[in-house]
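ENTRY TYPE: paired fold submission
RECORD: A
CONTENT: sequence, then structure tokens
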Amino acid sequence: MANLLAAPRTSRETPSSPIIPFANLSRLLLSTLLFAIIHGAISDQQVISSPRDSCITQDAPNQHSQQYPDLATGILNGTTLIVPISLQTARQIIPAEYGIIEDAYRALLPSFPDGMYPMMAQIVHDHDIKLASMNASLPDFSRASLEFPFIDVLGDGVTSFRWANTFMMSASNPLAIQGAEGYGISVYPSTFHPSCNAYEASSLLDGATFAHSQSTNSTMDTFMTIETSPSRDMVPYPLDFIANVTNQPVFGNPSQCDYYMRLFNSTMASGAVPVVGKVRTNLEPLIQPQIWDGVFGWQVATPFLEPTAPEPCRAT
């Protein structure tokens, strides 16, 4: 297999004034929201506007914000695929100071191929983000990423975390992007198709969908495309596995984690669809464009909850 380890891209866009610390993309928008609330008077519901206001999403509304008024809440919809890569490659990509808890993912997936590691590839859409205690909301945004679950940050060999290195994010959220860069997360301002939904129907096959992200920097060929079709007869990764990996605390800086939680026990998640598809991407932490075909995962929408401040990474 070709060397996938990323080298720095010298022409990456660098913001002039990083302003907000961050542990994952929804955290960025929450920080932006708090900044706007603190520095601007609020009489009615504060809505931070976006250039994409005319776009109409097909996602369901957030109906749980009042139940969790002190948490950021919303709907996360999208496609998450599990891409088996060799453990050797994973070890090259993931920083050497972090262990990989192989026993944890093998306990969940006993038949997962020997010598392999379950990398995540996903394009997702955050919708109807609210902080009810401040009577505030945020514009929708999309993101694309390669992420690495079952990481041993604490060195206890038990507690799994998810390492996130680089994101593509809707260019319509510049403050959020600056916040991510300020924290040390590499973010490519990007356009997404579809622009305000998690994916779009394809004419190639009944139930087929696609989603695409592209960096707005014309000198960089940074992109991700996910094409899928339903796979109800072959489901190598149960939805419980997706729930496990997507609910592992996310970190960029291991001193603090984002305890973002997706509610897979909701009625909304009952509409989840197992899928098989293709990922085409040129995105760090990989060094060159890659194509993975015949990879499996799920399309699922869930409510989410997120604390209003980063927390120390801890055993749970």
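RECORD: B
CONTENT: sequence, then structure tokens
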Amino acid sequence: MGRPLATDKYDVMVYYDTIAPSYRELYGAEQMSKYLTSVRLPRRSRILDLGCGVGLLYEYAVSSGVEVELYVGVDLSFESLRALRARCSREGLAEAVAGDVDRLPLRDGVGVFTNVYSFTVYTCDYGIPEAVLRVLDLGSAEEVAVSVLCPDEEPRCPEGLTEAGRLGRAEVLCKLEVPRAVWQVQLRG
């Protein structure tokens, strides 16, 4: 398995802690544009957002009329998570979890999430963390989508993911489209 976009996670945390108060102004329009073209949410969703930042995906889902039954955002940045909590936890359905997307701080096998997303976290030599598959609801899994950045080479999806479009010169959208029966065999095997 490869490495996340930045190899020093402490530096990533410090950077996003620093820009958290202005993240919406800096990147909000860009991220919302990605969601509009990339995210396919059913009317009712239980969402895991890896590298959630200040919770823009949650806001997008709610503003799109999706009934968000559960939203869990995982991020390294405490300040970003603080902003997420302040803005999105009023409804009681948004949870902010401090943690590393490579080592999800979630119990395996809970089978809770119907949709898993990660935007602008992984590089092209990175595979989807196995932990993601272990927290999906196998009976109603809808979509796993990961944007992959390849700043120094042609963007491509990691093994096991299918390209679903370009999000920029150095960024590709990758999706995992696996029939539910195959999910179950892979997870039990």
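NOTES ON RECORD B: The two ends are 20 Å apart (CA to CA). The chain is about 30% helix and 25% strand.
STATUS: closed
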